[in-house]
Amino acid sequence: MSDRPRDLVLSELIRLCPNGFRLDRLPRRLRSLRDADIEEAASELEAEGLATIKHHQNAFVSGRQFRTIGLSDNSHSISEVVQFGDHEYPRMIAGDMVGGEDLNGVLEVMGEIAQDGRDRIERVSSQLTRRYWVNTA
After folding, report:
1. DSSP H or E stretch at residue 126
2. What is the model's pTM?
3. Which domains does the chain have, with CATH numbers?
4. Which of 43, 87, 97, 111 has the fewest Cβ atoms surrounding its Cβ within 10 A?
């Protein structure tokens, strides 16, 4: 796929399929693009019939709106897992019932990743300290 903003946005929508996504969150996922490029690409994809942009009203805050974008055709293959470093976690798909334990599971995986990072840092720090004292003595 090319580096055109349209193609990058389309690629991200295919990756997220069948989930729609808040349009204002795409810049974090596509850091190489300016907000204006993303807006233009989204409009282009909608005009081509490849994507649908929906306007939503916040149910609790009067006047607050947000937009989501998703593929018009959800027949693409669906990734069933989310990758967190070396860990995998079941992906939450639009229409699934998501409960407290789903969020707890994500937090547990994030805790494992953090612990893995701490363990790695301690291991490297210990090795460097040993090298220092061997070379000093």
Report:
1. helix 100-136
2. 0.71
3. 1-77 (1.10.10.10), 79-137 (no CATH)
4. 97
